[in-house]
Amino acid sequence: MFRRGAIGYGVEVYGGTHEQRRAVFEIQFGDPTVYVDARECSDSTSLFRTALLSIADDAERIEQLPSYSGHYLRQELERAGSNFVIEEFDSLPSDARTSVARSMKAIAEGLGSDEVKLGFTTEEGGSVVHAEPDLRMRVRSWEVDPEALRRGPHAPEADKEDSAEDEASGGAHVGPIVFSDPDARRRLQQNGEVVTFRTSERTTGETWWRQTRTGEKMGNCRVEQIGPIDPANRSALREHYRDAGFESAREWENAIKELNGELVEGHLYRVTSDERWAECESCHEYSSDVGAVGRGPDFTYLCPDCRGPPGGDTPAPTDNEAGGNHAE
């Protein structure tokens, strides 16, 4: 069974029976996970409405939404910290499959939480990427292995890449962590350490970070759990707000409320990195490769793109500096 891929654009599980496909996600995702059976939905609107009503604790609020779209589903998934699986995706009409696949792509790219996982079950593999070709090489397909289901979630895997990762991380794969907030990213880049609040528990250890759930690797880091957060006890927020980059514990509380609607239960993690990022004084982009260029007191901090030709100590000359067009 799969260990990676669901954090991102999602995983498609195919083959076997409907019950076996469902069992794979029950083992791999656990709770909370919302399942919507596409066989009971006629189009994308009815599918997302069913999903929203299954996630939300206030049905009346959902019924009053201006539309039942992926935009609102993404918000509810983040608020609830719930995984989401569309069962029997290939039973939808062709136009509905395309609409749902495109919406799921947008949901994946817009999610700010790195703990919400997405999935699909289908009879035949490739149904999701066939509905939305832009998901090719993004949604991973896994065929049901009845023997693996019988052995359970802790059985040895045949995936060599996964096995190598597990061996390197002491037997447990540590997923990447997402920093969508620019202030948190900047603190990690410049100080090598940041404390972050997450609504659900996550894996800890050596890993890497990125700006979005589907973004590229930005740098290596280590994730360490500090402890749980109880809305009735704000002492941990008062203790760590400076390390999180806030001016006060109250400011941090307000940021959590703005994202989740209220001060919810969660967990604090300390993320550290040995890499240091600095601002290029020419293009003003931050990079771990920014370095001093020049000699003596006349030096400047530049990224590789602004340093000029390889081996040079100064930026490449402009057209005017190269001669021929001097104003003096």
From TrEMBL:
Biased composition (Acidic residues): 159-168
Domain of life assignment: Archaea
Compositional bias ranges of the Basic and acidic residues kind: 147-158
Location of region: Disordered: 147-174, 305-328
Name by which UniProt lists this protein: Uncharacterized protein
Lineage of the organism: Archaea, Methanobacteriati, Methanobacteriota, Stenosarchaea group, Halobacteria
